[in-house]
Design a protein that fits this description.
The chain has 215 residues and is mainly α. It has one domain (2-103, 113-214). The chain has eight helices and no strands. The chain has helices spanning 2-19, 21-31, 37-69, 73-92, 116-125, 128-139, 143-165, 167-214. α3 runs antiparallel to α7, α4 (73-92) packs across α6 (128-139) and α6 runs antiparallel to α7 (143-165).
Length: 215
């Protein structure tokens, strides 16, 4: 029970840091500027539902994906850890990672485009880092841990949705400096999580190599 609680707290911290609802709210308000309340709600709903569907697929089917592509857990953890570390590193220095801010995701003319799906849903909310973290949390977990993973991410999406709906108020309360500080703290947490995932991957690879050498 203690291990499950500890694992759940790590999930909460990891998802909150990598999705960073504070910083993503700024992006959301920028790309939805000029929309009426109904359109804003629809875009917010579309973004979180897109992210939820994508990540749930990787959470629930992570092991099947591993087997299909012949991916080992240590390989995922090393690659995912490196990716998550650099996303966090960029956040610490006040930069937006290219993985979460693709070209053409600005607030220009969005008529005829469902910006809730892209770029908000993917890759801003459900980017490569989020996918790597979600799969890493589920890869070795039992059914209960996988279920907790899915619930935690679902709650994170709900929190993000609320942030999006009150985006203007969030920006006014925190201000640019407040958002910058929060983003840098989230970046530090994310970098540490990335290093931890990477370390687990390295030790896992060493153990796997030792098992193969002993055969």
């Amino acid at each position: 029970m203690h291990e499950l609680l500890s694992h759940t707290l790590v999930m909460i911290g990891g998802y909150f840091a990598i999705m960073n609802p504070f910083a993503n709210t700024v992006i959301f308000t920028a790309v939805t500027a000029g929309m009426d309340d109904r359109a804003i709600k629809k875009t917010a709903r579309s973004a979180v539902i897109t992210a939820l569907c994508i990540i749930l697929v990787f959470i629930l089917l992570g092991r099947i994906i591993f087997d299909f592509f012949g991916i080992t857990l240590p390989a995922l953890r090393v690659a995912g850890g490196i990716m998550v570390f650099f996303i966090g590193f960029d956040m610490m220095h006040g930069r937006t990672s290219a993985a979460h801010a693709p070209a053409g995701s600005g607030s220009g003319d969005v008529r005829g485009q469902n910006i809730g799906v892209s770029p908000l849903g993917i890759p801003i909310l459900a980017g490569p880092g989020t996918i790597a973290v979600s799969m890493s949390y589920s890869a070795t977990g039992n059914e209960l841990e996988i279920a907790v993973n899915a619930v935690v991410f679902s709650i994170m999406c709900l929190i993000t949705y609320v942030f999006f709906l009150f985006g203007d108020k969030v920006e006014q309360k925190l201000g640019q400096e407040g958002l910058k500080v929060i983003t840098q703290v989230m970046g530090l947490i994310l970098s540490v999580i990335g290093i931890q995932i990477g370390i687990e991957g390295v030790f896992g690879a060493i153990s796997l190599f030792g098992q193969h050498a002993a055969v």
